[in-house]
Amino acid sequence: MTDLHQEIAKRRTFAIISHPDAGKTTLTEKLLLFGGAIQMAGAIKGRKAARHATSDWMALEKQRGISVTTSVMQFEHGGCLLNLLDTPGHADFSEDTYRTLTAVDSALMVIDSAKGVEERTIKLMEVCRMRDTPIITFINKLDREGREPIELLDEIEAVLGIACAPLTWPIGMGQRFKGVYHLEEDAVHLFDARHRDRVVKGEIIEGLDNPLLDERLGEQVGELREEIELVRGASHPFDHAAYLQGRQTPVFFGSAINNFGVLELLDAFAKYAPPPRPRAALERVVSPDEPRFSGFVFKIQANMDPQHRDRIAFLRICSGSYRKGMKLYHVRLGKQITVANAMTFQAASRQHVEEAWPGDIIGLYNHGTIQVADTFTQGEKLKFGGIPYFAPELFRRVVLKDPLKAKALHKGLLQLSEEGATQVFRPLKNNDLILGAVGVLQFDVTAFRLRDEYNVECGYEPVNVATARWIECDDPKVLEEFKRKNFEYLAEDGGGFLVYLAPTRVNLQLAEERWPDVRFKATREL
Ligand code: GDP
Asked: Any keyword Glycosyltransferase (predicted)?
């Protein structure tokens, strides 16, 4: 095996998806604890509030106590190198989350045992399904009274449309929570609430018939034996291929805050989760073990360092390797750039390594020359697709406070929209600038950044737009006719694409009925 093959085989690049409060932050912290990336649990919690204290515009984030940005954490486990891509917890920044999901090879889904499948989980699952992303499920908070495990699995199957294969099974819950039975190992892992912040393997008892179990579990042992017989008979056995195809999810139970069930999850993750997989470009499928570098940008973050007004483009490596100082070809601009100082995200023990491999993320500093979905290669003209833009659901007209700043406003908005921070629409009928967002906080962030980075003060006014659709039509004649008849509703987005801004849902519906040859698309792929 070459270095490249070895490095690929080790990599696991993933994200955690969940509804807010299910325990994503807590689980992240424990995963890093096991991975040795942080010494003390608690570091991540702190990070939730303080990690961007260095950055001006992040003050906004701090004020609101939410996480706006995505970052990368690399750690080691079971001989693997795991890249965990963090996603914003707040629904207003869900576009960032969707795009991050295009850069992972698999996902962990966290579900609160008392709440079951919640609305954000459903939406995120839909996004994972677009690429058949393999998913491992962690059912959390077993130390509290929750719903029956069987009921939870039924709900996942019915609502999320994915088969469940439990790999562990909980013994009681709440006050009666005693641990989990590991179905593959045929062993009981006993719960001990004293190990919250430490990496310890608790007591393990081999064999369901082991008399030690009667001693430890008392009357609950009978229940457990009966339940396991039922579970073995009624549930799907784990099928690795079905998991890799996104048709089945292995399920683990535990309590993240008590550091329980996390090691079992992590072991299985290192064992079963896929290493970097081939990825489709518009021209051809790119295999990770191709020696030449390729990758795409899934996220741009501005002003991490207030001293430098630059941005960082997060690039996922798809093939080959990155080495400090190498030349990369910026396909959209048709330009070679020398990457002297990419940001790498290394596990704690590999601090000084200046290379990165497929599955890894590197951060490219730039001043607005890099956009979401840009592809970089070593010369080949490739374009990785599949990064979605979602039709915004909220709209505002931009009001400029100083009319002399119109040019700066245009420039700022265009750059911010290219970055994916907001969407900007210019109606064909007038000179308005209309902003579109998925969540209302995006407007605040945009105004904040316009002031901070472009020195432009702006406000917002309500505008009569309910929803937007990208317009496509194969017949140029029909398209011309459509444009003429619907002039007052049409606009161009930041990329120059034609968009229909519907004042009401009913208006949109009527237009769709009236123009059967025109496609009204709710997403646009970059
Ligand atoms: P996030 O919004 O998904 O990142 O969720 P957090 O990790 O911030 O957790 C939300 C709340 O649930 C916090 O108050 C956690 O302390 C709590 N929590 C997380 N895991 C557990 C658990 O295993 N048991 C209990 N009882 N609470 C938990």
From this structure: no
